[in-house]
Inverse folding.
């Protein structure tokens, strides 16, 4: 699978260089820069307050180029934090290096691609720079991986997708022989109402590990004035079950301002382990900047240590 990834990435580079040479006379640029920066100011308030200061959480830097025939090449660098090193240091990873082909009702992706496990829910939630979506936050899966995916839009109200990736995420090199397989379906029975179902098996395992099963269900409704969504997620690895749900809503006060709220509950089997809540507002400052003051609560049922914090999250993106 790693060899396939290298071949796909090589094709992407060759296609991009060839297209760039052919399009020099074209006055209309087909490429665009990708720049996204997540930062915040945060302060714990409570008896065990431990944090106060500014934080550069993540930066995405890359480029996307559209070719003829429905082809697109894309490369993105992810510069973020790592628990393995000091918080003052940052590590850079290649987040995406892919070729995408759209033709008719088909969309195909190959290379280091975005996974389909929770991408839909993350976009519906809409505040990734403020807080990760449920599955990403509680490590039910990775947001990108090396492999291939395909999606087919059978009708305006129904589409299906499948993905095969290494199963170790974009921060690790494939070492085992296993792969991660996933299938999903998205339904829009009426305008604004969206339903998403997903199931996956990750058999990327060494002799000491076990297969991991994932399942997810989402339903959401989005209108001009508001949106509301709810998702349930399940993961089982060697009989160690984790599951939980997340509900969130946004009310658009104006074109430039909105308020949002979210509640998460996480379980180990049938035992509640933690819960989280966030309430805040978002203000758009021009075309490229968003500012989102928010208040968060994290309840740890295992240790009994609850945390409360205030944040001012900031986003800059092209």
């Amino acid at each position: 699978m790693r060899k396939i990834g290298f071949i796909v990435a090589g094709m992407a580079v060759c296609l991009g260089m060839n297209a760039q040479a052919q399009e020099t006379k074209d006055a209309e640029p087909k490429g665009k820069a990708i720049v996204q920066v997540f930062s915040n100011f945060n302060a714990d308030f409570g008896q065990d307050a431990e944090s106060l200061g500014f934080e550069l959480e993540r930066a995405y830097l890359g480029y996307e180029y559209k070719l003829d025939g429905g082809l697109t090449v894309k490369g993105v660098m992810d510069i973020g934090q790592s628990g393995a090193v000091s918080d003052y240091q940052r590590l850079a990873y290649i987040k995406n290096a892919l070729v995408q082909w759209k033709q008719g009702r088909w969309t195909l992706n190959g290379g280091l691609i975005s996974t389909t496990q929770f991408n839909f829910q993350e976009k519906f939630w809409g505040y990734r720079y403020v807080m990760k979506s449920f599955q990403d936050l509680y490590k039910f899966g990775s947001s990108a991986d090396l492999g291939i995916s395909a999606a087919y839009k059978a009708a305006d109200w129904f589409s299906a997708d499948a993905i095969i990736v290494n199963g170790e995420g974009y921060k690790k090199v494939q070492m085992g022989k296993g792969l991660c397989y996933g299938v999903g379906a998205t339904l829009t029975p009426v305008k604004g109402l969206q339903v998403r179902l997903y199931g996956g098996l990750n058999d990327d395992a060494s002799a000491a590990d076990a297969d991991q099963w994932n399942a997810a269900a989402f339903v959401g409704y989005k209108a001009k004035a508001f949106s509301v969504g709810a998702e349930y997620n399940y993961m089982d690895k060697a009989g160690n079950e984790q599951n939980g749900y997340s509900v969130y809503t946004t009310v658009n006060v104006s074109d430039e301002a909105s308020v949002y709220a979210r509640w998460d509950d996480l379980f180990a089997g049938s035992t509640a382990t933690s819960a989280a809540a966030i309430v805040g507002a978002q203000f758009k400052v021009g075309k490229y900047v968003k500012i989102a003051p928010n208040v968060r609560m994290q309840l740890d049922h295992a240790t009994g240590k609850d945390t409360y914090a205030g944040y001012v999250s900031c986003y800059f993106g092209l």
